[in-house]
Amino acid sequence: MKKKYGLYPGCVMPTEQYAYELSAQAVLSKLNIDLIDIPNQSCCGEPLKSVNKLMTLYLSARNLALAEHHNLDLFVPCPMCHLALSEAKKILKENPDLKEKITAQLQNEGLTYQGTTSIVHTIDLLHDHIGLETIKKHVTHPLKDLKVAVHYGCHLNRPKDIGRPVDSENPQKMEHILKTLGSNPVDYPQKLDCCGALLTINLPESALTKTGQKLDAVQNLGFDVFVDTCPWCHKMFDARQTKAGETVAKKLSVPVVYLTQLVGLAFGFKETDLGLHLNQSPVDALLSR
Predict the structure, then answer these.
(1) What is the Cα 208 distance to its own chain's centre?
(2) Which of 177, 246, 248, 282 lies in the 20 to 30 Å Cα band around 161?
(3) What local confidence, expressed as pLDDT, does residue 170 receive?
(4) Structure confidence at residue 112 (pLDDT)
(5) Contact in structure between 151 and 191 (CB atoms under 8 Å)
(6) What is the pLDDT, as a whole number, of residue 50?
(7) CB 92 within 8 A of CB 56
(8) Looking at beta carbons, which pairs linking 95-100 to residues 24 or more positions away fall under 8 Å?
(9) CATH 1.20.1050.140 is right for the domain spanning 38-120
């Protein structure tokens, strides 16, 4: 019997980053996971946080209440959304008065919030819930001799007092998964550097500089592929790689893929099943291996 999770795709994955959902759906189905669409979901509210904290809290609580209504835990592939929902859950647990205020607003939609829904990201779903041994059983095409650079981003490991999917100082779960696939993930000094995405609106050149500097370091260190799990980060490293290279005066040619895409390749899925034809970085260099 398949384990069911509600899918909370956020705003970026269903509007731009289709490859993330395609690859996640394929890989998780193979691993006996059913992702259930929950009607009437909304933005997590995180982009509104600096404008209206109460609105952000309400929107996150609303999405959690919808999951509770369907008796589902939430699979949240976007780290920013994962942070917003996790933070809302922590705040409402620690502040009964605020929880009462939010609950009263939710009643206008016929919703209730109890705080019972678990929130899982791609990395802890694969590493902690499904497990490395189960993943290993499905590997039919080991990724031998593949030197992999991992990118965790900023929202998966900080702030740790909220409870994040990976360690804040030395995250290694993605490396454990990649080793199970037969590949060779290698630490590098820039591993925890930011992608720059959140600077895009106000400081676009600074944002692209951050992106370009990290990709240039990865390229100079001879990695075969760069792996991420965040649609915001992926937009920067994959879709904006050429522009980032121009910004730092470098010619960049780094294959950038989602973790779920690399898992899918090790499982023997076709490229189109994993959305690799949608990637804008030079993934052909990877696929030719």
Answers:
(1) 20
(2) 177
(3) 95
(4) 95
(5) yes
(6) 84
(7) no
(8) 98/57
(9) yes
Looking at the DSSP assignment, which residues form a beta bridge with residue 78? Answer: none
Find where tokens 């630490």 sit: 187
Q: Which residues on neighbouring strands pair with residue 74, listed in sequence order? A: 6, 119
Tokens of 143: 């990724």
Q: Provide the pLDDT for residue 267.
A: 98
* Below-50 pLDDT ranges, the chain: none
- Say yes or no: domain 139-287 is CATH 3.40.50.2000: no
Are 143 and 182 in contact by the 8 Å Cβ rule? The answer is: yes
The per-residue pLDDT for 205 is 97
Closest CA to 126 of 8, 35, 31, 36: 31
Tokens representing 234 are 């992926």
CA–CA separation, 258 and 26 (whole Å): 13
| Single pTM value for the model | 0.96
pLDDT of residue 160: 85
What is the residue type of 279?
N
C-alpha dist (Å) from residue 22 to 167, 256, 272, 273:
27, 16, 9, 7
**Per-residue pLDDT, 187:** 97
Do residues 266 and 181 make contact, with C-beta atoms less than 8 angstroms apart? yes
* Strands of 3-7's sheet in order across: 33-37, 3-7, 74-75, 119-120
Domains of the chain, residue spans: 38-120, 139-287
Task: Give DSSP secondary structure letters for 62-113.
Answer: HHHHHHHHTT--EE---HHHHHHHHHHHHHHHH-HHHHHHHHHHHGGGT---
How many CB atoms within 10 Å of residue 100?
A: 10
> Quick one: 179 exposed, middle or buried, by C-beta within 10 A (0-12, 13-18, 19+)?
middle
Find the radius of gyration of the CA atoms of the chain.
Answer: 19
